[in-house]
Amino acid sequence: MEKSVKSILSLILAFTLIFAMIIPASAAASTTADTKATALKQLGLFKGVSETEVNFDLDRAPTRVEALIMLIRALGKDAEALNVGGAHPFTDVPAWADKYIGYAYEKGLTKGVSATELGTGNADSDMYLTFMLRALGYSDTTGDFAWDEPDTLAKAVGILPDDVNTANFLRRDVALISWAALEADIKGGNQRMAKKLIGENVFTSDAYAQAIGLAGEETPAVVSVSSFEMLKTALSDSSVKAITIDSVGKPVFVAGELTIPAAVTVTVSRGSDFYIEGTLVNNGTINIMGADSVNADFANYSVMSVQNGGKFINNGAVNLLSASLSDTDDYGPVGGTIRIFDGSFTNNGSVFLKAGTANTHGGVIFVIEGPFINNAVVIVDGFQIAIINAFTNSKGAVVINNTYICTRGDGTFTNNGILSGHTVIEE
User: Fold this and answer.
1) Residues of the domain holding 280
2) Which among 9, 380, 383, 390 counts the fewest CB atoms within 10 Å?
3) Are residues 191 and 321 both part of a single domain?
4) Is the domain of 47 the same as that of 75?
5) Does residue 102 contact residue 85 with C-beta atoms inside 8 Å?
């Protein structure tokens, strides 16, 4: 009998330990969505389902009507929608939501499932991400993205966090996307959604700072590296999620094969150079910084160069950040820069050239001796892509050209996919 009691106690202890490991992870996910929903509510951008108690009902799927109303609130247009309203052709909209849906229809946020039906089912992630991308200025009509495949562009612009469940889309996921959208750039410019809403007096900068504190997002500890060996060591440590290449005056050369895992961010700090001479596969995020100061001898932007037979394969995100200069003077290109010499760049994820306060302050790509092959999405809000060699936009891929792409000399731009926005200029 003693053995049986001990066995039972051992089983109870084992189950206790298992649940102790499982519950915190689930609770953490729930807490993340709840705190962000609360922060959004504090800014007037999110509401619960009860007027008498705080109840966001985050574990329920949103209906299509609810998703549209939640979008309108996330854009700070709740009062405007109720005051202004609008006309719509849908016959399946409940009377209480009529003004919201009319407003959304006239603003181009929804087209419905047919000419006369909005749709009465639940919203999925494709629908809400499409709504949000349209709100940021992107168009599924002109080919920026496909309404039933918005994930790649949504990832690129930063509105699809890793903890969003696209397979089982709930109101908690709406909260996570809506919160992320506050830090997303409006298409074609350098104004973030939060800054726009502050400018429209939806909330104040102080209120936003308080909401950020309430949301309580953790910033991972940053590991600084100044050599290829240090970079390899940092990438081999699964606990490291943020790495800064800080090597002013001495470039970091990638030789052999190297992979940046998913959920890892590598930032090439100002004044540093990152040279790819082996094969680098990026499954995470690479940020290439623009200058914050310029003098007669030195502009401290950062450069990633693919050279000497190097290969860069991007399955994640590459962001060419703009210069953070207070003036609009023309110093030449001083945003985050990619240069492709004797090497190749293959994009299977996203490349985003960020806009600066002046055109030369934005991100820039020079395709000089090796090819750039785009199989996914490239967003050009920054200075330019200058093609001296060859750029191929593959079938099914998208280039969103909001500023300037040019070919020079024998350079070629081959478009087998979609080129949205401006045409490519032959200089």
Assistant:
1) 222-426
2) 9
3) no
4) yes
5) yes
List pLDDT tens digits, range 85-114: 999 999 999 999 999 999 999 999 998 899
Q: Which amino acid is at 130?
A: T
**Model confidence, pTM:** 0.88
Among residues 388, 389, 390, 391, which one has the least CA distance to residue 417?
391
Task: Fill in the amino acid letter for 170.
Answer: L
Looking at the structure, tell me whether residues 135 and 235 fall in a common domain.
no
Record the tokens describing residue 75, joined without a space. Answer: 């854009």
Distance CA 7, CA 249 (A): 64
Q: Provide the total of helices (H) and of strands (E) in the chain, helices listed first.
A: 10, 24
State which H helix or E strand residue 383 sits in. none
Domain C-terminal end among 215, 231, 259: 215
Strands across the sheet containing 343-347: 257-260, 279-282, 310-314, 343-347, 372-374, 390-393, 412-415
How many residues would you count in the chain?
A: 427
Q: How far apart are CA 403 and CA 397, in angstroms?
A: 18
The span from the CA of 37 to the CA of 49, in Å, is 12
Give the whole-angstrom CA distance, residue 305 versus residue 302.
10
Output phi, psi for 130, to 5 deg: -60, -45
Q: What is the dihedral of CA 412, 418, 423, 427, to 10 degrees?
A: -10
In whole angstroms, what is the distance from residue 162 CA to residue 93 CA? 33
pLDDT digits (tens, 9 = 90+) for 231-254: 999 999 999 999 999 998 899 999
Computed on alpha carbons and rounded to an integer, the radius of gyration of the chain in Å comes to: 24
Instruction: Report residue 245 as tokens.
Output: 């290449």
125: nearest Cα among 157, 149, 153, 92? 149
Return d(Cα 365, Cα 352) in angstroms, integer.
10
Residue 297: both structure tokens together: 């001898």
Of 146, 180, 215, which residue is a domain's last? 215
Amino acid identity of residue 359, one-letter, is N
Would you call 140 exposed, middle or buried from its count of C-beta atoms within 10 A (0-12, 13-18, 19+)?
A: middle
Count of domains for the chain: 2
Check whether residue 46 and residue 178 sit in a common domain. Answer: yes
Nearest CA to 71 out of 105, 95, 42 is that of 105
Tell me which H or E stretch contains 385. strand 384-387
